[in-house]
Design brief:
39% of the residues are buried. 32% of the residues lie in helices and 27% in strands. It has 277 residues and is α/β, with parallel strands linked by helices. The two termini are 33 Å apart. The protein has helices at residues 14-27, 29-32, 34-39, 44-50, 66-72, 88-97, 138-148, 167-173, 181-193, 240-249, and strands at 3-4, 55-60, 80-85, 102-107, 124-129, 154-160, 202-209, 217-225, 228-237, 252-259, 265-272. Strand 2 (55-60), helix 5 and strand 3 form a beta-alpha-beta unit. The chain folds into two domains: 3-7 and 164-237, no CATH class; 33-161 and 240-272, Rossmann fold. The protein is globular. It binds S-adenosylmethionine.
Amino acid sequence: MPQELPASALYSNPGLGRLWRQVHLNCSPFRHRPSVRRLYLRPASILRKILTTPYSLVALGCADGTKESLLFGKLPKPSYVLAADTNLSLARQASRHLPAHKKTFRKIDLSNSLPALHLPPFTKRVFTLYGVLPNLDPLPLLRRLARRMNRGDLLLFSANLAPGQKGRIGARRVLGQYDNLPTRRWLEAAVLRFRPRLPPGRLVFGVFRDPRQVALARVEARWITTQGSRIVLASRRPTKSQVEKWISRVGLRKLARFLEPRGEEGVWIVARRAARR
Ligand SMILES: C[S@@+](CC[C@H](N)C(=O)[O-])C[C@H]1O[C@@H](n2cnc3c(N)ncnc32)[C@H](O)[C@@H]1O
């Protein structure tokens, strides 16, 4: 199994953040398919009923906060917003965009335990985690978040799905969303900046099994060199039923699920289960 670059190595400086934004602007289904944009607005009607008391929004891995701004612009304003990302300049942009009475931003590493968040006491907390589960090991990440949730807190997360019932076949259908020029430019820049330096090579995209959950399909971009290969990008594409197994395994319960018509992306609203496992 080739070694893997940490996901943060693809985003962790302003230049890479800008290249990722180019990928997002040019290739993201969120930008080009109105049905995917609508997906991120669909939780609004349920949230309007739940968010009747002051709440804090913790936007995790939020990049520039576009998706959160779309949804929370339609909801009662949060008392407090914390925009948190490995890329500080993106988190700063997100905190500018998001509506709130008070806001802040910080650098965070979601591959470790969440740090103290210093949220205002007596507010319900709404965590968002959009577009992050593909990049980080999903089950441990969801488990860490579940452990930090109190009764009444909510987590909204998205998953990029393998459409259909069969993960690897579904993942092959979306390979073109990765193997394209803007994505290659972004990943090649990340390879060049990586230390210790990687030998010259070329990027090859394919669908593989996740080494930690063999039934889970991953689209990978591998840097192939004469001295071996490294995984530069690993994007997990679970089926919707795999996502729901994760929810249950980490002690959360589903309040709602929204899928876009092609079944390539979904948004879930989950809460803590009453009795912890
Ligand atoms: C695919 S982008 C999704 C951005 C945005 N939430 C969206 O859905 O458009 C992944 C985001 O996760 C952030 N990220 C990657 N690894 C991270 C880590 N270890 N800790 C915190 N954020 C991370 C990146 O900086 C980036 O903003």
